[in-house]
Write a structure and sequence with these properties.
Layout: H1 2-21, H2 31-35, H3 41-54, E1 60-69, E2 72-81, E3 84-92, H4 100-105, E4 114-116, E5 119-122, E6 132-136, E7 139-141
Parallel strand pairs: 3-6
Antiparallel strand pairs: 1-2, 1-4, 2-3, 4-7, 5-6
């Protein structure tokens, strides 16, 4: 009897731990996000402005996609909290050895994984369509 009870408790804890890592669904009422493509400059500029005002410590990031465009590589993250539900595109330096595995696999095996402690630089160049440059993360919750 005690063994069955212990197994039930253990199973419940395992299921809860899987559930807690999942990205919660979200919706936005931001007209810029609703009326523009994710890859547009206006959309990405709005995301950057929101990230600046909210602060990265208050946001969560999940890897959504990996893009190769104009001989550059980009990571696309779902970024959200209670005030933001969007996707952000970040340039990734394909020559940086710290990112070699992500670049080599093109993000496969990490899609929908939560990236904690995401760091990036914001470009000062107004011509950049994707103004964020990925500089790393603390850990990945898969």
């Amino acid at each position: 009897m005690k063994s069955i009870f212990s197994k039930c408790i253990f199973s419940t804890l395992i299921l809860l731990s899987f559930y807690s890592c999942d990205r919660t669904s979200c919706e936005t009422d931001n007209p810029i996000f609703l009326n523009n493509e994710v890859l547009s400059k206006v959309y990405q500029t709005e995301v950057v402005n929101k990230i600046k005002s909210i602060g990265t410590d208050n946001l969560r990031f999940w890897l959504a996609d990996y893009l190769e465009k104009d001989q550059n590589d980009y990571l696309v993250f779902y970024v959200q909290n209670k005030n933001l539900c969007a996707e952000v595109v970040m340039h990734i330096d394909q020559t940086n050895p710290a990112f070699s595995q992500l670049v080599e696999t093109k993000g496969k095996g990490r899609f929908n994984a939560e990236f904690r402690g995401v760091t990036f630089d914001i470009s000062k160049n107004d011509d950049d369509k994707f103004p964020l440059h990925y500089t790393g993360h603390e850990r990945i919750i898969d």
